Amino acid sequence: MKGTTVLGISAFYHDSAAAIVRDGEIVAAAQEERFTRKKHDPRFPKHAINYCLEEAFIETDELDAVVFYDHPWLTLDRVVQSVAATAPRSAEQWAKAGSTLLGSKIFVDRYIRRALNSDVRVLFTEHHPAHAASAFYPSPFDSAAIITMDGVGEWATTTVGRGDGEEIEMLREIDFPHSVGLLYSAFTAFCGFKVNSGEYKLMGLAPYGDPVYADVIREHLIDLRPDGSFRLNMEYLGFLDSPLMTNDRFHALFGGPPRQPESRITRREMNLAASIQKVTEDVVVAVARHARELTGLSDLVMAGGVALNCVANGVLDREKVFDRIWVQPAAGDAGGALGAALLASHTMLDVPRKRNPTGRDTQQGSYLGPAFSSAEVRALLDRNGYPYIQVEPEERARLAAEALAAGKVVGYCVGRMEFGPRSLGARSILGDPRSPETQVTMNVKIKFRESFRPFAPSVLVERCGEYFDLEEESPYMLLVAPVRADRQIEFDTSGFQAGDEDMLALVRQPRSDVPAITHVDYSARIQTVHHDDKPDYHAVIQEFERLTGYGVVVNTSFNVRGEPIVCTPQDAYRCFMRTGIDMLVLEDCILHKSDQPAPSDDGSWRTEYELD
Amino acid sequence: MNRALFQYHPVFGYIYVPGLKARIEHEGGGYLLKTNRYGFRCEHEFQKAKRLDRFRVLLFGDSFTAGDGVSNQDRFGDQLERLEPRVQVYNYGVSGTGTDQQYLIYQKMARDVECDLIVVALFVENIRRIVASYRPYRAANGETLLHAKPYFTLGANGELELHNVPVPREPVRPDEVGADRRHQLDLGGRFLWLRDRIRGVSPRLRDLAQRLSRYQPLPSYGHPEHPDWLLLRSILTRWADEAQAPLLVMPIPFYSYVEETSSATACMTRFEELSSIPGLTVHNPLPEIWKLSMADRRAFRFANDVHPTRRAHRFYAESLCRTIQPMLRSHQGVA
After folding, report:
1. Inter-chain contact B6–A570, Cβ cutoff 8 Å?
2. Which residues of A have a CB under 8 Å from any CB of B?
3. Environment class of A234 (CB within 10 Å of its CB; exposed 0-12, middle 13-18, buried 19+)
4. B253 and chain A: CB distance < 8 Å anywhere?
5. For chain B, how far is it from start to end, CA to CA, in angstroms?
6. Among candidates A35, A58, A375 on the partner chain, residue whose Cβ is nearest the Cβ of B7
7. Residue A551, SS3?
8. I need a labelling partner for B23 at 20 to 30 A (CA). Which of A80, A227, A235, A339 fits?
9. How far apart are CA B63 and CA A577, in angstroms?
10. Are residues A200 and A308 in contact, defined by beta-carbon separation less than 8 angstroms?
11. Choice among A155-164, A367-376, B38-47, B199-208 with the minimum mean pLDDT
12. Cα A584 from Cα A576, distance rounded (Å)
């Protein structure tokens, strides 16, 4: 089958990935970390590329083009200009960046040809247009306003554009160092979490605090203007002239030195998290209002790392700046690979844009990664002598749901792996949302992560309104909305309000009749599950509803802290045996922990993954 | 990504996972691998009855036939079909197998499949594999494990006796094999310690070491009464005797034979002797290979991997085609 086939690549910053598009249709996309088992792996995505070619089942000489998602010469320009502006203070910072840039990045075309053993045509897009393309082309909209926001691309950190048919037009941009993504990362680092990884934790921490520092941030750190543009006050930030995100003035502004990683989280961090979250929401809404005015369009698409802030997305949704919003599920740099491939297909190779005849998006539920056949799974299990039972799909749904209803934790590895940072029921750990103990148990005994972190619900799309104040679909877990008021339960926050910083005491109190997925502010990060996107997962939740009356389950990523989400059945089995997961579903095979031979490892694997 | 390419089989030891589509990362740039629903790396789904206007070849062998290092379409069996469209090739090759396992595959899977010719593409190293009861495989975690395989021995009256069937399922570690069975392990030939060290050096140095030492990798071909050779000969004799069509043995030479850095004389002599077996003919491509330049011959294998390149597969396809084409002339329906 010959069509116009384009391979997109993102690499060398963080979250390397590859995506392949044939005649404008997404064939496959995957992050390199899933194959190398190194979280946020920035290296050239040779394994992800291999997978994409496998899924398309083509030789490298059948590719029409390979597209890199970033323009290395423009990035070099930023580095050089930044050095000139901040030298000699920034020497150490930029020597490091420069050596990487002048290495593999700047000669990326040669690097790609050598890696693929092919003289394939290599094209380049710019970073933010690639994000814009990843958001617009797969969206369900004929035309839409586009917002991209992240740390930094070549120069741009925030853009506003417009998509119409095959065309994408970039209308406005805010350039480095003025970046809301980097500002959020500065607070992430200051609160003791890892940059480009811990932003999600900061967002999860925010509901425990009060935005008492929001005015300080507005007054000293960011000048947000009525037209949505903003400037950062670099006197307080370190990333321009040092290897650190913040500096002493920043520390003085917020009451002392940064929190040490893994130390106790205090009220200060909770309040800082709430404050930067509030400011970020204000920025996102302001940029969106400007985008609406500028484009006159009623629908919005978004990408870039900031678009993964689903709390801000939820606020934007409720503000009704736009009628409809669609966010690329792989909104971070990984999605740039997909955007680059789509942008090249439609604007350089004249491929018409593919639309979904149902009117839904063309992201295919973001199930764009590898799948493993039942025969492959059985080959693994048989070869290693792991006991299992093979079942029909209906039986699989029933057994998984029964285990969940009995309070068991189920590892679920069925179908194509998700593209993007969220598990959407293909590589997920599932639990019972009704139990107040589920959140603590799953955090501490399964995920080995911080107990304050909330879990997300997967809800049958047809039941969403019965549980949440959310009117539209949220198939990619990118919208946060409140649990319905009639399900909320008042809980005792007096001790916490009086100064007790024990978040666990709050977490253990039921906050609704689905406490495991209700955050302390009654919010939930929702995944609506549509039968057409993932019938097997829909069936599990439907069966759980038949057994319990609840059409919703807890869904968290199938990994432990610091580990990339599992990819292969081997990965899933390993994670299953190392954690408190009770049952593992591998395609049509069911494994019970109690039946398995004792693992041979000694627990030293816990040091295998760098803590995020 | 480690896809499980093989699944356990109680008689052969293993076959490919059926219905597989994979791309294998490789120094040659990666290759596409597809298996049929029977668990063989064949573009055809096997059917017992054959078309009268096709000359059907059943092809057996190991990784050189199955095509490690190249995509399905680039293997000599598939290239043969394109060179001679009247020929249909059913590829039963399975990586890592010995001639004993290939014969068992024939017995269980292909004995009642209509055909005009059976080709055994016999990588000459197989003489070592047929005496082994275990072969090493690298597990996903990098550990070397030994997997049991079926094997034959020659009885007192020269009859073949089959062992290890059903094949034990569980792999064992090398240190779990007792001293009395160590000779049954195929760990890749003699001087294991030295080979392990040489493996780490550059391909050029390795080639130089081979050229200087003229290391003979397969001494079992050295004498017509060598027990390993007698076993191989017996397997082929029985195969030819049972086969529903003529058996053509095509020895696939070791790279040092191709590049003349070790003597192939004994090996070639042994294979010539096979022609006396009723129902069996031998096609030895090595003399044709030696007519090529040394650079062309070096291009038969990859820098590190000794498996045939696309170019080598092309050569074997052309060579086999020249052997088969005369058979087509006398074949009713395809002539």
Report:
1. no
2. 35, 46-47, 50-51, 53-54, 57-60, 116-118, 370, 372-373, 375-380, 382-383, 385, 567-570
3. middle
4. no
5. 47
6. A375
7. coil
8. A339
9. 34
10. yes
11. B199-208
12. 7
List the end-to-end C-alpha distance of chain A, in Å, as a whole number.
Answer: 43
Q: Which two tokens stand for residue B265?
A: 């004389």
Rounded to 10 degrees, what is the CA torsion of A9, A12, A16, A18?
10
User: Tokens 């039946």 map to which residue?
Assistant: A595
Q: Which residues pair with A413 in a beta bridge?
A: A427, A586
Helices (H), A461-524: 464-467, 494-497, 503-507
Q: How far is B183 from chain A (nearest CA, A)?
A: 25
Task: Give Dmax over CA atoms of chain B in angstroms.
Answer: 57
| Cβ neighbours of residue A490 closer than 8 Å, sequence gap 6 or more | none
Q: Which candidate, B155, B176, B293, places its Cα nearest to that of B234?
A: B155
Residues 6+ apart with CB under 8 A from A449: A443, A560, A561
d(CA A415, CA A422): 15
> Choosing among B2, B3, B302, which should be mutated to test the A contact, i.e. which has the most A CBs within 10 A?
B3
- Residue among A19, A332, A335 nearest A195 (CA): A332
| Peptide bond just before A177 cis, omega within 30 deg | yes
Count Cβ atoms within 10 A of the Cβ of residue A55 and give its class: 0-12 exposed, 13-18 middle, 19 or more buried: buried
CA dihedral over B267, B269, B274, B280, signed as positive or negative: positive
Query: Which of B140, B61, B58, B141 lies closest to B96 in space, CA to CA?
Result: B61
Range in A519-528, A572-581, B208-217 the model is least confident about:
B208-217
- In one-letter notation, the amino acid at residue B89 is V
Please tell me the predicted confidence (pLDDT) of residue A100: 66
A133: enclosing H helix or E strand: helix A127-136
Buried/exposed A79-115: b ≥16 CB within 10 Å, e otherwise: beebbeebeeebeebbeebeeebeebbbebbebbbeb
Does B3 reach chain A within 8 Å, measured CB to CB?
Answer: yes
CA–CA dist B67, A189 (Å, integer):
51
Confidence at residue B199, expressed as pLDDT on a 0 to 100 scale: 66
> In what helix (H) or strand (E) does residue A161 lie, and over which residues does it extend?
strand A156-164
Is the minimum CB–CB distance between B28 and chain A shorter than 8 Å? yes
CB burial class (10 A; 0-12, 13-18, 19+) of residue A360? middle
- One-letter amino acid at A452 equals F
Residue of A376, A587, A600 to mutate, testing the B interface (most B Cβ within 10 Å of its Cβ) = A376
Q: How confident is the model at residue A197 (pLDDT cuts 50, 70, 90)?
A: confident
* Helix ranges, A172-237 (H): 180-190, 199-205, 214-220
CB within 8 Å: A60 and B30: yes
pLDDT 10s digits, B256-275: 999 999 999 999 999 999 99
pLDDT digits (tens, 9 = 90+) for A532-554: 999 999 999 999 999 999 999 99
In angstroms, rounded to a whole number, what is the distance separating the alpha carbons of residues A160 and A174? Answer: 9
Of A50, A60, A375, the CB nearest to B25: A50
Burial class (CB in 10 A: 0-12, 13-18, 19+), B182: exposed
Q: What average pLDDT does the structure give for chain A?
A: 93
**Are the Cβ atoms of B23 and A51 closer than 8 angstroms?**
yes
Q: Express each pLDDT in A394-452 by its tens digit.
A: 999 999 999 999 999 999 999 999 999 999 999 999 999 999 888 888 888 787 877 78
Instruction: Give CA–CA dist B108/B330, Å, rounded.
Output: 30
Provide φ and ψ at B330, rounded to 5°: -95, 5
